[in-house]
Recover the amino acids of this structure.
């Protein structure tokens, strides 16, 4: 009789161990899936869009004027900064972080956001940004450069850059998962792309 009692207990323990192993496997699959997603997004960060030539555009700015890519390129290369915009402090802090560095290299910065001009202007003033920001209603220009839908934003850019040379060729495209990139990191990657 003791033999028949031992077998069900042993079976229960074995079954309990199997259930526990499956619970652990299920629990560990979540971090593993997240690690895979992070690895994929890291690969995506280094890949640029297949855009070879710049798409011409003219957009209204936060100061009520208009800015055309063609006019900017008449003075040299331009770095287009496609930003998430209002609600992202790091996105606005990015502008003064890199603007002077770019200017010292003869590169103009064109910051492009999709929010209404008054909202963008108010945030820009809060960060001491004097340079007009270009407004891209409906994200049409952002879409034409492949900047929408990166890192989960279906209706706006996230934090992306495109270097447009004076001849209209696109020399470098970079998407960042972070909403702020220190100037030394960004300029280092840009210089590698420029071959300097």
């Amino acid at each position: 009789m003791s033999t028949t009692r031992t077998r069900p207990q042993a079976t229960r323990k074995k079954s309990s161990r199997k259930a526990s192993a499956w619970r652990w496997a299920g629990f560990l699959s979540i971090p593993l899936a997240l690690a895979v997603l992070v690895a994929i997004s890291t690969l995506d960060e280094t890949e640029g869009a297949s855009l070879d030539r710049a798409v011409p555009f003219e957009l209204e700015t936060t100061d009520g004027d208009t800015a055309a890519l063609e006019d900017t390129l008449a003075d040299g290369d331009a770095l287009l900064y496609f930003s998430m915009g209002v609600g992202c402090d790091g996105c606005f802090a990015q502008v003064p972080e890199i603007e002077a560095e770019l200017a010292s290299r003869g590169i103009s910065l064109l910051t492009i956001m999709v929010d209404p001009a008054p909202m963008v202007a108010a945030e820009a003033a809060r960060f001491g940004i004097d340079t007009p920001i270009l407004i891209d209603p409906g994200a049409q220009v952002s879409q034409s450069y492949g900047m929408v839908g990166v890192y989960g934003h279906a209706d706006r850019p996230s934090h992306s850059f495109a270097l447009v040379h004076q001849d209209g060729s696109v020399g470098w495209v970079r998407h960042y998962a972070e909403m702020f990139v220190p100037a030394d990191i960004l300029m280092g990657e840009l210089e590698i792309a420029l071959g300097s």
